[in-house]
Amino acid sequence: MNRAPSAPDHQEQITSTTAESRPGTESTPVSSPAQKTSILRQPTAVWAIAFACAVSFMGIGLVDPILPAISHELGASPSQTMLLFTSYLFITGAAMFFTSWVSSRLGVKRTLLAGLVLVVIFAALAGASASVDAIIGFRAGWGLGNALFISTALAAIVGAASGGARQAIVLYEAALGVGLAVGPLVGGVLGSVSWRGPFFGTAALMGVALIAILVLLRQPKPAPPADAAPPAERVSILAGFQALRNPALRSLALVALFYNFGFFVLLAYSPYPMEAAAHSLGLEFGAHELGLVFFGWGLALAITSVLVAPALTRRFGLRPVLFSMLSGLTVCLVLLGCFTGSLTGLVVVVIVSGLLLGVMNTALTEAVMEATDLPRNVASSTYSGVRFMGGAVAPAVAGPISEALGAGAPYWFGAAATGIAMIMLGIAGRHIAHIGRPHETPVEEAQDITSGDA
After folding, report:
1. Which of 135, 196, 294, 436 has a Cα-to-Cα distance from 127 of 20 to 30 A?
2. Tens digits of per-residue pLDDT, 145-172?
3. CA torsion sign, 88 to 89 to 91 to 97?
4. Which DSSP helix (H) or strand (E) runs through 119?
5. pTM of the complete model
6. Angle between helices 83-106 and 132-160 (to 10 degrees)
7. How confident is the model at residue 435 (pLDDT cuts 50, 70, 90)?
8. What is the pLDDT of residues 11-44, one digit of tens each?
9. pLDDT score recorded for residue 342
10. Mean pLDDT for the chain?
11. Looking at residue 50, what is its pLDDT?
C-alpha cells in the first residue's frame, strides 16, 4: 500500500510521488495543522515550479495572435504557418509515450530541467529564424522539451508543496489556467512589436524558471532504511503503447483524438477568418486584438476547468457531462462555420467555446484516469500522447481545406470530428460504465483532474 507523504516529508518525497496509488488503495485523509495551512504559504520551490508551469502552458497559445503576422512578414501561407501548431503538438504527443520511461530513470528534477533547457534553446532559435520552415522545425524541439516538463511537473509540485495534495493541485490548476489565459495575451502584446517577441519572451521566462528550479528544488534526501519508501518502479520503454491494449483507455483516447481535432481547428484556424472579417469592415485586427480575444477564451477555459467542472461531474456524472460538452462544442463549431463573415459572431462564439472546453478537458481526463487501473503516470502519458495527435492533425489540414472548400469548411470538419467523438463515447459504453465513482485518495483525485490538462 502506498504511503502518502506527510507535510514535513514533502521535500524528501519528490521522486516517490511518481509511483501512484492504484484504485482501491486505502488511504484516509488525516486532518493536520499542515493541511489547514493557507494555500499561499508554500516553499519557494513550489512557486518556482508553478511559475514554470504557467510559462510552459503559455507556449500552447502564444503563437496564436502572431500567425497572420508571420504569414505577412515571411511570405508564408496560412497552411504553412498553422504547421507551427502541428510540429509542436505532434512531437509533444509522440514524446508523451516515452516520458514515463524517461522520468523513471532520470528522476523528477532532472527530467524537469532537461525539458526546460530544450524549451529555452528552441524558443530562442525560433525567434532568431528567418524562414517559416525553420520556425516549424524549432517548434518541434520546443514540443519535445514541453513534453518532458509537463509530464513531471505535477509530481514535482505535489511532492514539494505543504498543506496536502489538494492544495498542491489547486496551485497546479491555477498555473495551468494562468498559462492558457495569459499566453495569447502575451503573444499579442509582444507580437504587436515584432512577431519574434513572443519567442524570445518565452525563452527568457523559461530561463528564469530553469534557474529557479535548479536552485530551489532540492533532490530527495536518502531516508533511514526503516522509514524508506519502496523505490519507484522503472517503467518499460513500450509501456505507453502497451497501455492501449486496455479497452477503456483505448476507447477514451480515441474520443480525445477526435475531440482535440475540433479543439485545435478552433484555436489554430480562427485568427484567419477573424482577420478577414475585420478587414472587410475596414478595421485593423492585429496581434494585440487577437491576443485579447484568446485571452478571454483562455480565461473562460481556466475558470470552468477549475471551478465548474468538478461541480458538474459530481452533480450529473462524468458521461452525461462529456456528452453535453461535446454537443455544445459541436454547436459552436457549426456556428463558427456560419459566422465566418461576422467578426462579432466569431469573437463571441470563440470565447463562449472556452467555457465548454474547460469542463470537457477536466471531465475527460477524470474519465480516463478512473476507467483503468494502469499506473497513473503511464495512463495519463498514453492518453495525452493520443490526444495531442488529434491536435497536431487539425492545423495541418485546416488550411488546405479552407483553400479548397471555403472559409467555413474547417469548422464543419471540426464539428464532424466532435460528432464522431460522441459516437465513440457511446460505443465505449460497456468499457467505461463504472466511471464516476468517488476517488479513493486526495492524490488520485488531484491527478485525475490535472494530469491530462497539460
Report:
1. 294
2. 988 887 777 667 766 666 655 556 556 6
3. positive
4. helix 108-127
5. 0.76
6. 40
7. low
8. 333 433 333 333 433 333 444 444 455 556 777 8
9. 94
10. 78
11. 83
DSSP-assigned states of every residue in 292-318: HHHHHHHHHHHHIIIIIHHHHHHHH-H
Cα 432 to Cα 212: distance, rounded to the nearest angstrom:
42
Q: What are phi and psi of 174, to 5 degrees?
A: -65, -40
pLDDT score of 123: 92
Yes or no: say if 138 and 126 are a contact pair by the CB < 8 Å rule: yes
* Those residues with Cβ within 8 angstroms of residue 333's Cβ, 6 or more apart along the chain or in another chain: 262, 265, 266, 411, 412, 414, 415, 418
* Residue type present at position 114: A
Distance CA 413, CA 339 (A): 15
Say what the alpha-carbon torsion angle 293, 325, 99, 245 is, to the nearest 10 degrees: -160
Of 379 and 117, more confident: 117
